[in-house]
Fold this protein.
Amino acid sequence: MPLSRQLSSSRIRDDGRGIPDATVARLPIYHRVLRSLADDAVHTISSDHLAQRCGVSPAKLRKDLSHLGSYGTRGVGYEVDFLSYHISRELGLSQPWGVVIVGVGNLGHALVSYKGFASRGFEIVGLLDSHPDVVGEKVCAGETDLVVQPMAELEKVVSSSNASIAVIATPADAAQKVCDRLVAAGVRSILNFAPTVLSVPVGVEVRKVDLAVELQILAFHEQRRVDDLTPLAQVMQA
Amino acid sequence: MPLSRQLSSSRIRDDGRGIPDATVARLPIYHRVLRSLADDAVHTISSDHLAQRCGVSPAKLRKDLSHLGSYGTRGVGYEVDFLSYHISRELGLSQPWGVVIVGVGNLGHALVSYKGFASRGFEIVGLLDSHPDVVGEKVCAGETDLVVQPMAELEKVVSSSNASIAVIATPADAAQKVCDRLVAAGVRSILNFAPTVLSVPVGVEVRKVDLAVELQILAFHEQRRVDDLTPLAQVMQA
DNA sequence: TAGATTGTTAATCGATTAACAATC
DNA sequence: TAGATTGTTAATCGATTAACAATC
């Protein structure tokens, strides 16, 4: 990784209270756009231009970056590689993370074959499913092929693969039990695709992606749009 | 739908400024949990219990619900069916919404076969892909089978199916062009799975699900956990 | 009535924004 | 130096929380 500035190994954390959640959630976007700029041989970029490509305001971008340290140059902008490196380090992408996927149905298959994982430093190191038809199936995951293991092997797979992140892609009714076993096996970061509220001990980080919820939020806005177009109802109420 | 109270048809919106985004994002969760309670023949529930099942604080739940109107009974709690109905109406789930999916790769297939859509009032009414191998494929979507249409048919499919929501599940480099065509065809609610920042005219609502971003946020927390466990580095800095 | 629980208030917290001094 | 752009400040905005009056 060619970096034209000396890389400091110290990690600057603004006020010691850490980086705000809202900022952390945007860092991956900045990082992806910066990598893409680097591919296009762009070496320097201003907060105005970078912000536009990331879909945020320049003020927000600069505020976000200020939490990581002072990696820009006044009057010039940000060095793409330099900033990209510091974001990736802050995000923990400088080391690879092992991921176990539990539930290899349609969604699980899609996740395994998703190239965005491997390219961003995640390695799928285990696949688990309870269905006999799926267990034993060889699934192509990046460079290596993986064989779907039976659910009984969960603890073994987690510990032997040293996975630190687990993805739950099971039906809703299986999710909590799977979650409990993952936590007991030492996993403390979980990405949950099952439409269930998981309960976990403190210290375990759960993120949730609910496809139906996303559509329902869109439906809400779509409906409000329809309502606004028909002010008749409002007139009738008044 | 059995409701033991008279259903008012007026829509109460607290202060006229609408429901806060953060609240809207949680309404689908409340709704799902309420439906599940109804299935278990639970007729009444307090904010404390409902909040626990939804993974939020009771104060937050009551505040959220207060934006919809006053649908509880002091000293008693909420009637499950009554509250569920009002949330679903607010979310726009009382009418079905047509969804077009563009990009029928692994993820697209997973989305089509996802039962959570149909069960929540969404109907997949069109599938589009640019790849000749996929075009023409018959995909089972709920009750009816759908045939994957070539990308050239996008405008025709959107208008003839009266789809109001589109899902983009294409590779990143195709997403913006697809988005432009969808918007031109009249779609104003888009769920984007491509790792790209889409630019759309004002009035178009875009929601984004980025699987890699979710993992990266988990990686951040995972790394911070490792850092905290090794205070040696901090000692050495001091 | 007494006990329970909602809906609302007011305080706090965190995130966003605009403006500008610092500085390359 | 003059022009450009960052990093920071202070104000604003929105979301969360705890407490409690209203009321079933």
Summary: Residues 21-39 of chain A form the longest helix (19 residues).
